[in-house]
Design goal:
- The complex is a heterodimer of chains A (209) and B (141).
- With 209 residues, chain A is of the alpha+beta class.
- In chain A, 17% of the residues lie in helices and 29% in strands.
- Chain A has helices at residues 10-20, 52-57, 73-80, 83-87, 129-133; strands at residues 95-99, 105-110, 114-119, 123-128, 137-142, 148-153, 160-164, 168-172, 177-182, 188-192, 198-202.
- The longest helix of chain B is centred in the N-terminal third of the chain and has 35 residues, at 3-37.
- Chain B is elongated and about 55 Å long.
- Helix content of chain B is 25%, strand content 37%.
- Chain B has one helix at residues 3-37; strands at 45-54, 60-61, 70-75, 82-89, 101-104, 106-110, 118-125, 132-140.
- In chain B, the strands form two sheets. In chain B, strands 1-8-3-6 form a four-stranded antiparallel beta sheet, with no helix packed on it. In chain B, strands 2-7-4-5 form a four-stranded antiparallel beta sheet, with no helix packed on it.
- The chains are: A alpha+beta (209), B alpha+beta (141).
- The interface between A and B is large, with 41 and 38 residues.
- β5 of chain A pairs antiparallel with β5 of chain B, so a sheet runs across the interface.
């Protein structure tokens, strides 16, 4: 039996119902919605509406989703097979944010206190809202030529990010999303948020073979 | 043919039919069992794996051979941990194209349909030497 098929516990059901009902529960670290805790064997209900705390910091989520926001098949699959049951992600609330450096379609998808960045290549990265606000919603995909595709999300007020390696690559942010193809030497992503706070995010890749 | 002989014949016929039916059911059951047990042949297969405290740069695998088209790496603790997932072609160190993919705390990847057999793996990296519990989940469609 897997986490996708196991019946929800009463506790989880109650928690999901509260969150799905749009009741904001104060979090010690942020004022945003309390993120659910992924647990093997537990499934969460999809978030019923994009939390206002997310919209307030990530304008890519503003407005009701339209036909153009509908996730493509691979992105939909990536969300439905993991973040939907694990984190309460709702692909129907996803917003199209643009194309990445490999021309994959990129979407921002809200979950129960989490945010996901997913692409038409089938790769998705998710983190809690408070961590996404700090720039920790970032992922990489290894490329055949040894370089890596970087894709990430930063909050409003950040127009550029910098990828730090042997050389510094400055990347424009559009709809809160940035992307680039860089070498394995790039080990850090730097950005300054709308409050003028500088963030330095260690940027990995896969371990060497 | 007398009544007794006719009854005996009918009994024999009924017994034979029952035996054939039983054999048929056993054969069907065995075939279904084989389809379920044999790796790479079954239809859908889900595998939660790892879930163990591992060193960074240690690839923790499911050890199975399936036509995986989905894999996920999760870290459920506090802070931010860089996690990675990959699919290895069975019996090789060759990584399926499109991977590894990595991200902080929750990284998931849908690959396209395949007929190849894979072993699914997860790891964490850049963790300053700390050990973390990483959960893996792989599935086929």
């Amino acid at each position: 039996m897997t986490r996708h098929t196991i019946t929800k516990t009463l506790l989880v059901g109650a928690t999901s119902a509260l969150l799905a009902g749009g009741i904001a529960i104060a979090d010690a670290a942020t004022s945003g919605p309390t993120p659910v805790q992924p647990q093997p064997g537990t499934s969460y209900a999809p978030v019923s509406a994009t939390p206002q705390e997310m919209v307030a910091s990530f304008s890519a989520l503003q407005g009701a989703p339209s036909a153009g926001d509908k996730l493509d098949a691979m992105a939909q699959s990536s969300i439905m097979r993991g973040p939907a049951p694990d984190l309460g992600a709702n692909p129907d609330l996803g917003k199209f944010a643009g194309r990445d450096a490999e021309a994959n379609l990129v979407y921002v998808v809200p979950a129960q206190g989490w945010l996901c960045l997913t692409g038409s290549d089938g790769a998705s990265t998710c983190n809690t809202l408070d961590k996404a606000l700090q720039g920790y919603l970032i992922g990489t995909v290894q490329r055949a030529d040894g370089t890596k595709l970087v894709r990430g999300l930063v909050p409003d007020g950040s127009s550029v990010i910098k990828l730090m390696g042997a050389v510094t690559t400055t990347v424009q942010v559009s709809n809160n999303v940035y992307s680039a193809v860089v070498g394995q030497d790039v080990k850090e992503m730097d950005f300054t948020d709308g409050n003028g706070v500088a963030h330095k995010i260690p940027l990995g890749g896969p371990p060497p073979q | 043919m007398g009544f007794t002989e006719l009854l005996g014949s009918l009994r024999t016929s009924s017994t034979m039919t029952a035996l054939k039916s039983l054999r048929y059911l056993v054969a069907v059951g065995a075939a279904l069992t084989a389809l379920w047990v044999l790796p790479g042949v079954a239809s859908a297969f889900d595998d939660s794996y790892c879930g163990a405290l591992i060193d960074e740069d240690y690839w923790c695998g499911d050890g199975s051979r399936h036509t995986f088209d989905y894999n996920r790496a999760e870290y459920n603790g506090t802070g931010n941990v860089w996690v990675c997932e990959r699919l290895l072609y069975d019996g090789t160190s060759t990584v399926r194209a499109g991977g590894p993919s990595c991200g902080y705390n929750y990284q998931t990847r849908s690959y396209g349909p395949t007929t190849s057999l894979f072993n699914a793996q997860v790891t964490h990296y850049y963790s300053g030497g700390a050990r973390h519990t990483i959960y893996g989940f792989a599935s086929t469609t």
